[in-house]
Specification:
elongated; three-stranded antiparallel sheet; 89 residues; alpha+beta
């Protein structure tokens, strides 16, 4: 008795590439404001947010979060609405 095993084709999952949310330096916002925004928007702890703020100040930019474009877009928009300069690379 021969039995044939039929397999369902695997559903193709759309794999999103990991992207970087980048915060860019500006001469407008205070360190405290940037730190507060990173804690509120990106769920950074205060020390992590402070370190990112210093990196942005010294290097001109800093990757503040990794994730899919779908996950990062609302964070980027919120940072922009707060008057910060952010991009997704």
């Amino acid at each position: 008795m021969d039995t044939e095993v039929l397999e369902k084709p695997l559903a193709k999952k759309k794999i999103e590439q990991l992207r970087d949310l980048i915060l860019h330096n500006d001469d407008v916002n205070s360190f405290d404001f940037v730190i507060e925004a990173l804690v509120d928007v990106c769920s950074h702890n205060p020390l992590q947010a402070e370190q990112c703020a210093h990196i942005v100040h010294n290097n001109g930019k800093c990757g503040i979060k990794k994730g899919s474009f779908t996950d990062l877009k609302p964070m980027c928009e919120t940072l922009l609405n707060k008057g910060l300069s952010a991009t997704i690379d």
